[in-house]
Amino acid sequence: MGRSHSTEGKENATEIIAVTIGCKASQEVLRTAMAMGADRVIHVIAGENYLTDINSDPEPRIVSAALAALVKKDTPDLVLL
Predict the structure, then answer these.
(1) pTM for the complete prediction?
(2) Which of 15, 26, 43, 48 has a CA between 20 and 30 Å from the CA of residue 59?
(3) Cβ neighbours of residue 15 under 8 Å, at least 6 residues apart?
(4) Which of 68, 75, 55, 67 lies closest to 20 in space, CA to CA?
(5) Distance (Å, rounded) from C-alpha 44 to C-alpha 59?
(6) Cα–Cα distance between 72 and 42 in angstroms, integer?
(7) Are 42 and 17 in contact (CB under 8 A)?
(8) Which residues, including other chains, have CB under 8 Å from residue 44's CB and lie 6 or more apart?
(9) Helix, strand, or coil (residue 47)
């Protein structure tokens, strides 16, 4: 049985991209994703208060717009949230 953080099925994927939307402190999530086998990471900072406030969550409309733009640009076969 595979672990939830495993890249066991990666042989079927051409590229694994990890995305986070938030403050600079959320970069740690991306470092972890790279260590777990992600090929590329994208960090979206949405607004000035997200640069420093770890407790400030971006609004859902900002998150959905950012994800829509990324999906349109990269045209992935699968998106997991």
Answers:
(1) 0.70
(2) 15
(3) 39, 40
(4) 67
(5) 13
(6) 14
(7) yes
(8) 19, 20, 21, 22, 66, 70
(9) coil
